[in-house]
Specification:
Elements (H helix, E strand, L loop, with lengths): L1 E9 L3 E2 L4 E2 L6 E9 L5 E6 L5 E8 L13 H8 L3 E2 L8 E2 H11 L2 E6 L4 E8 L2 H16 L5 H18 L3 H14 L10 H5 L3 H11 L6 E6 L3 H12 L26 E5 L6 E8 L8 H13 L5 H8 L7 E7 L4 E9 L4 H18 L3 H13 L8 H14 L9 H7 L2 H11 L6 E5 L8
Parallel strand pairs: 5-11, 12-16
Antiparallel strand pairs: 1-4, 2-3, 4-5, 6-10, 6-11, 7-8, 9-10, 13-15, 13-16, 14-15
Helix pairs in contact: 1-7, 3-8, 9-12, 9-15, 10-11
């Protein structure tokens, strides 16, 4: 049943099969529709009929935050192996990974799978010519619901993955990132690290069990953007989910919530010896969930602090005035259950302590005093002026619809995004920063710095 219809604003006309938008002076309005299918799947639809293509993303609450600690990487393994073959079923032959790839190439369509922290996702792109789309949907349904998980292929892919982890661990940036995540997230699943040992603990039976537990029709959140109407979208979604188990009241019950991430009790410094040309520095703390009402204020604040590139305060103070780093940044990384704030830079090992001192001082001063009116105006102009670039293709628009669906945001979120950014005051930004950041209780990770007096 159709729950509600809102408008999302985007600046565009489609042209060509790539689905690229061309900005116009005035915003066009397209409705975003949201309803629940009879099978329990939720659907978000934007009808964009200008070109005969459709982009679809299916999300399941089966991201890495659902991995057992001893099997970190399990969700990603399920996604990876979904493209390595499908089972024989209903008179259709089994397909190995090469045959599956050739089948998609013949259709001129694609199905990609991946697992982030908050979701295991399948992304379908196809032309909407009826016969072609129908074949793409039927093939996607097999790959989503009936992967074969061949043992020999998993052993091969696991060995490749383990080799990639070993190679990455020779890089100071990887070492710093892992140490930072462990310090900030602790035992929270957002901080779990995939290792050679956790991959060794994953067998093909575990892939099948994970798939069975989390991938059911009633758990699907589906975003659709393209040249399909509501009836066509309903049929498309039903087709994609047709081979998944329907689920019952017990199996479709809400999954357990993760324990809230606790703030840090005190500052922590981790100096990790490493032979490298540059020291890698990360400074930060636990952040906030994506649905937090402070999100836009913090987005603007971070843009001023370190997320705005060469126009940011950190770049001005660390790079331009003192030459302590070629680049320096800050960002919030919110998720469904937890998030983090991080500021990072690379510098000469003998300059690391000075760079850290300046970075900490800039963060502390900005949290205490907030932005100036001039800084706020510049950030608003940049963010609002670049808004059209956030939605200038089918895939970008799909990503925004997925963001709305995944995080329970209002359907008019994009329509009022620029208005809400414009309405923010310097006091709003300062208050949001002070609610979320504690500069005197941050983690500092330094990899590869020369011993020196600490600030």
């Amino acid at each position: 049943m159709l729950k509600t219809i809102k408008k999302i604003a985007f600046s565009a006309l489609f042209t060509g099969v790539t689905g690229i938008f061309y900005a116009q002076n005035a915003f066009a309005l397209l409705p975003i529709e949201h309803w629940t299918q009879a099978n329990g799947a939720e659907v978000w639809l934007v009808q964009s009929p200008a070109i005969p293509m459709v982009d679809v993303q299916l999300d399941f609450d089966a991201g890495s935050r659902r991995d057992p600690a001893a099997q970190a990487g399990l969700a990603s393994a399920v996604a990876l192996m979904s493209a390595k073959g499908v089972q024989a079923a209903d008179g259709l032959p089994a397909l190995d990974e090469n045959q599956l790839g050739e089948a998609w190439a013949d259709l001129g369509a694609s199905l990609d799978a991946g697992a982030g922290r908050d979701a295991l996702s399948f992304s379908l792109r196809s032309l909407t010519k009826p016969d072609l789309l129908d074949r793409a949907v039927r093939l996607a349904a097999r790959q989503i619901a009936q992967p074969s998980y061949p043992q020999d292929v998993w052993q091969r892919e696991r060995a490749r993955w383990q080799a990639a982890i070993a190679e990455a661990d020779t890089k100071p940036g990887t070492v710093a990132g892992k140490a930072f995540a462990k310090a900030v997230y602790g035992s929270n699943p957002y901080g779990q690290q995939t290792t050679a040992q956790t991959l060794d603990a994953i067998q093909t039976a575990d892939l099948r069990a994970y798939h069975t537990r989390y991938l059911q029709r009633c758990r699907a959140r589906v975003a659709v953007v393209g040249a399909v109407n509501r009836a066509q979208a309903q049929s498309l979604v039903d087709g994609l989910l047709a081979r998944l188990p329907a689920g019952d009241a017990q199996s479709c019950a809400a999954l357990p919530a993760l324990a809230p991430l606790q703030p840090l009790a005190k500052a922590q410094e981790l100096d990790i010896p490493f032979q490298s040309a540059q020291a890698h520095v990360l400074i930060g703390q636990p952040g906030f969930v994506r649905g937090d009402p402070d999100f836009l204020a913090l987005l603007v604040g971070d843009h001023i602090l370190g997320g705005g590139g060469f126009a940011s305060l950190l770049t001005e103070e660390v790079r331009e005035k003192r030459g302590l780093s070629y680049s320096v940044f800050s960002e919030f990384t919110p998720g469904l259950s937890a998030g983090a704030f991080v500021a990072g830079l690379q510098t000469r090992p003998d300059q690391a302590m000075e760079a850290i001192k300046v970075t900490r001082a800039v963060i502390a001063d900005f949290v205490q005093n907030g932005p100036t009116e001039a800084q706020l105006r510049a950030a608003k102009d940049n963010l609002i002026g670049g808004f059209a670039l956030r939605i200038d293709s089918n895939r970008k628009l799909l990503g925004n619809v997925v963001n709305i669906a995944r995080n329970g945001l209002p359907l008019d979120y994009l329509e009022h995004w620029t208005d809400r950014v414009e309405a923010l005051t310097a006091r709003d930004v300062k208050a949001a920063l002070q609610r979320k950041l504690q500069p005197d209780r941050m983690v500092t990770v330094v990899v590869g710095a020369q011993p020196a007096a600490k600030p």
